[in-house]
Amino acid sequence: EMKTGEGKTLTAIMPAYLNALSGNPVHIVTVNEYLAKREFEGSIGDVFRFLGMTVGLNTKDKDHAQKQQSYLCDILYTTNSELGFDYLRDNMEIEASNLVMKRPYSYAIVDEVDSILIDEARTPLIISQSVKETKNLYKEAQRFVRTLKNRHYLIELETKTIELTEEGITKAENFFQIDNLYNVEHASLLHHVKNALKAAFTMHKDKDYLVDYKDGQVLIIDQFTGTCFARTPI
User: Gene3D superfamilies attached here (predicted)?
Assistant: First the structure.
């Protein structure tokens, strides 16, 4: 463990280079794009290039082809959030040729690991995709949630998770006139109910999300930076 100013950035050169020599990729994960760009464009990146390594940069402004090229490099500088989003997007792809992370995972160096794995772990990475759902299901879930009392749900404030109590489940089954809310045939309904619960009781406008009336989107706010997550319309 090294304190601020003791040379973590310089020290990281040695394990990064050593592991890149094996032919496997090395990911250097930082907390923000400024740090990733600084090391990629600065003297640290020059050291790796002098040693014969290819160095890539992964930021949210890169297009699909640029990301694919970056992930093919020996050493990649990336932010934790962009790395997570790329992983999620790859898991949504059908064709292997569309993957951006084509090389196997091998070795990673995580800067500010306590911030990334503990503090920022509380903020979920959310990927949305256009789906053909009827608006009626959203409206019905919202109408049901508005009938709930405190005894019908339990909230975990720290993680912002919310679940129906046994009484709440019974109320939902009566409201929607079904036998078992957790039956696989009602998976879509359960998903909408849980989202309606979270929206109604754990999310607050202009604090947890912003409404973009121009584009018709709801954008999640990063509680650590105060900015909206890129590519996370809900």
Answer: P-loop containing nucleotide triphosphate hydrolases (3.40.50.300), SecA, preprotein cross-linking domain (3.90.1440.10)
